[in-house]
Design goal:
Length: 281
Amino acid sequence: MGDWSFLGRLLENAQEHSTVIGKVWLTVLFIFRILVLGAAAEEVWGDEQSDFNCNTQQPGCENVCYDEAFPISHIRFWVLQIIFVSTPTLIYLGHVLHIVRMEEKRREREEELRKPPIRDEHGKIRIRGALLRTYIFNIIFKTLFEVGFILGQYFLYGFHLRPLYKCGRWPCPNTVDCFISRPTEKTIFIIFMLVVACVSLVLNLLEIYHLGWKKVKQGVSNEFAPDGESLLLGADEPGDAETIPEQNCPTVLDCLPAYASVRVVAGGAMLILNNILNCYD
């Protein structure tokens, strides 16, 4: 099902080029989504289909009723959600790496020219130009994906599992009663995942507010410098660009709060997520 540890390493690298709120968003993704999903998935949802029982002996009726009740497994739905909301961040990281490489080539060609300062007077790296536009679009698309998956979950399942599901789908001879195992426990888990998704959504909105609507308007216009100056070149005036704290530490782990050991969490989370998918193959 793919190398999830590779995804974890990419998201970990994205921490170095994110704002403080962006770092918190990635921590929420790793701890409260991937790890919790892995910890509870097998125990809560392992019997999802095997214990879905209907009071009929009609061949095929139970299978079609299960398909009607659960068009897609909750686990697979949440895994898809994690993949989709992570993709904009990975695209942003790819843009960062591209700009860094372009800047290195430009320096080699123009060593004799005077360069604007890389950092501001506070020692912070500036995000500006095309990189700022990419970062803004990254947040916008993450927000849209979060809203889309929340609405999708609502229209597919709702946010509450009823113990009894009535099904009249062919080839059932009539309307039959089907029973879902541990509906209360699963409902609690569904609500928890919904709350975490809403927290991620709020963090995205706060980050847009943090960047400022003025910067959003500037970011989608053509008033900024070209790509080569986006990441490492300083802004000409204060307020021209969003800044990120300087990373004066050997690893990303050392730059994060004590509660957010991202390298350990990301590696373990991706391993757990891979095991989840293997269990449901």
